[in-house]
Specification:
Length: 290
């Protein structure tokens, strides 16, 4: 069909609107990147730089030379890797269990899971519970309270419900027990779904901030986002203020902060392209049934 004048007008308006939204969205990212690589003397003299004339990696050299930043990266890496593995194992196994129609008390468990998506205890009860468990100042306080989510459990259960019962029955006839069915049949089929939810969990653990502010008092155990928060709020901290590099050169606090933001953002941006195929497939699996 030949597009009408109204169709062409709509297309042009749509392209212009989306372009504006794209520019507004990408501009902060570009500004952070540009400032992080701006030479100290140029940033001090200009104060606002979009197109650096002199590029420098001194801010990156500085943040990686500090024990606090390296330690924070290690903590965030531990949370993202260990926390994601635990969350995926717990969520997938629990979801598969709830999908078994022969499970006694299945409806009661589903109701309890649903209630967790509607009602939450609140900050103070959560803090008291973590304190009673002796997890204050422990990295496990950033993993155990958020190991799984009722919403994720229900979504993954929808995926397991879409797997034909005939596959499980055939495996049982061939001599597989419940664990064998789970490891040999279910897990290989659920890789796309687990990758999709694993990305959600990894981003959540990598960006852990609020729970760290509540439960972690030892700055040696701060995750990366907590360290960035302190750098931004208190510019007089070791990584927040200007830093002498053994000469007359002073590193502005802004370039150091922007370099830290880039380092905190890049790992997740690099992981997503490799998981995009599984992510798109896993996000749709179980959402539509024949």
């Amino acid at each position: 069909m030949k597009p009408t004048k109204a169709d062409r007008t709509f297309t042009v308006a749509n392209v212009i609107l989306l372009s504006i939204i794209g520019i507004v969205t990408l501009f902060p990212l570009y500004y952070v990147f540009a400032v992080s690589f701006t030479a100290a003397d140029e940033y001090i003299s200009k104060g606002f730089v979009l197109f650096p004339q002199h590029w420098s990696i001194m801010s990156y050299r500085y943040i990686f030379s500090t024990k606090a930043f390296v330690s924070a990266i290690g903590v965030s890496g531990f949370l993202a890797i260990v926390g994601t593995l635990i969350s995926i194992l717990l969520t997938s196994s629990f979801s598969y269990t709830l999908s078994r129609k022969r499970l006694k008390g299945r409806r009661v468990l589903l109701l309890l899971v649903l209630l967790t998506t509607l009602f939450q205890a609140g900050i103070i009860p959560d803090y008291l519970l973590v304190k009673q468990m002796g997890l204050i100042n422990s990295l496990w306080s950033l993993i155990i309270p958020v190991m799984t989510s009722g919403w994720y459990v229900l979504l993954m259960k929808g995926f397991y419900d879409s797997i034909p019962d005939a596959l499980q029955e055939a495996a049982t006839i061939d001599g597989c027990n419940e664990i064998g069915v789970w490891t040999r049949i279910i897990l290989p089929l659920s890789i796309p779904s687990m990758v999709a939810f694993g990305l959600f969990f990894a981003v959540g653990y990598w960006n852990t901030f609020f729970n760290a502010m509540l439960y972690i008092n030892d700055y040696h155990k701060w995750p990366l986002q907590m360290l960035l928060r302190n750098m931004i709020v208190d510019s007089s901290t070791a990584m927040g203020g200007s830093m002498s590099q053994g000469s007359d050169l002073q590193l502005p606090s802004e370039t150091i902060k922007m370099a830290a933001v880039v380092v905190a953002t890049v790992p997740i941006l690099l992981v997503y392209p490799f998981l995009q195929k599984h992510f798109a497939k896993g996000a749709m699996i179980g959402s539509v049934k024949e």
